Amino acid sequence: MKQLIECVPNFSEGVDMHLIKTITDEIEKIDGARLLDVDPGKATNRTVVTLVGTPDAVLEAAFQAIKKASEVIDMSRHKGEHPRFGATDVCPLIPISNISMEETAAHARKLAERVGKELDIPVYCYENAAFTEERRNLANCRAGEYEGLPKKLADPHWKPDFGPAKFNPRTGAIAIGARDFLVAYNVNLNTTSTRRANAIAYDIREKGRPVREGNPFTGKIKKDENGREIWVPGALKACKAIGWFIEEYGIAQVSINLTNISITPVHVAFEVACQKALERGMRVTGSELVGLIPKRALIEAGKYFLRKQSRSGGVSEEEIIKIAVKSLGLDDLKPFNAKEKIIEYILEDSNDKRLISMTAEGFANETASESPAPGGGSVSAYIGALGVSLGTMVANLSSHKAGWDDQWEVFGNWAEKGQLLKDELLFLVDEDTRAFNRIMDAFGLPKGTDEEKSARSAAIQDATKYAIEIPFRTMKTAFESFDLIEAMVEKGNPNSVTDAGVGALCVRSAIMGAYLNVKVNASGLKDKVFLEKLMKEADEIVSATSERESKILALVSAKIN
After folding, report:
1. Per the residue annotation, which of 82, 332, 423, 483 is the catalytic one?
2. 78 given a catalytic annotation
3. What percent of the chain has pLDDT over 90?
4. Is the C or the N end of the chain the one with fewer CB within 10 Å?
């Protein structure tokens, strides 16, 4: 699946909109990166920019924006209320989809190295990209700000991670890092009291509240023997919170910033806020999401609430998100549109041409047309998706079967595995067609000069190898589905045993169809070592497929009889 990262560079200019646009124009030139937001602040003289895309595209867009900022912003003239030490002050990368924090940190360091080397700007790596514990904290890296840079850069202890240890009065320095996604999230209360909302905020925020003598709100703050204030930490890590009254809605809210949703997910913050509200005689009526959120945050929330209901989480993404929205009360104050709030959905192409976005009739008509694609590879992957979907259906029906309440989790786990296999096979439906198109594109390359012939030949071989790997992936993924289907025939809802049997037949057809595509594409590949290894495994899958199908169909027949 496509990897997505977010990048939130902060530029030290918040007044001159023309200058800001010259920077953001550089981002919009890069294919694969999308500019989502530009937020200038006059008082801070700082603009926060948000872009999202594939790692390579985001790194290129960020580099070009940093380069342009170094050309058009003169830090020697900069004044603003916000801490800063460079034309591009900070540039964090945030993992969004199908990418780990470790991978994101590696991308941040790669960007930092390029900025230091090609732009001659001192670079400090912070948060998860930091090389030392001290530099994880952005405040430490930026201490002394722009005015203190000459002294800082002269100190060997603060030698930049990349770039020269030399003060450039125009560009200053930059901090590049990797951090988790920050979610701005408000919890709605059935009160108008800001004071009571603040009490809940102090209960949950990591900082907590000071210990007071007498009155817990107005009493004198207690101090220890060293004269330091005594604080009691709140219930949630990586959480900042404050209470306020929202005139537009006529209610008080707990306004929350979740600075690391891997530590404190949205649904955990909601549940703890509900608990603390009840302890203080109030009730949470819903919540509000400010800005955007990664899809995984709502998927995790939806699955959490499904588990609380003793229900299977092996349902569609759409259903899981619907459960999350209803459970968190995200539509309490106004309608919640997932297409406008979830980053991955915003990035989807409105003119989606994917095969799996077609209706069943549309897919059949497209297959039956004079076009050579979609062909047998795409159809094989789709048959496999239907097969594992039948097995997943039996798992979900079994998890809800009356009298089987003690087994809901076992069947739910099977259903979740089935959903993952189904999603992979649906991805391969379109990827098989893309692989075919890559071969056609390679054959269409020019072949006049020797250099062009060599490049064309290499492109054809790369495309051919990929066109073998994709149906092979279909074979492997479809074969994995047999475990689910066999388990459902043996232990699942007996009323649906034939559905699982049909699933096995579909999976067999998917494997055999994909195998034909592997073989036909293999005839054009010159890499015999690669081919020998892959074909050996493919032949083993085909052989095992016949055995698994026969075993499952025998079990189905026994159940029917």
Report:
1. 82
2. no
3. 79
4. C
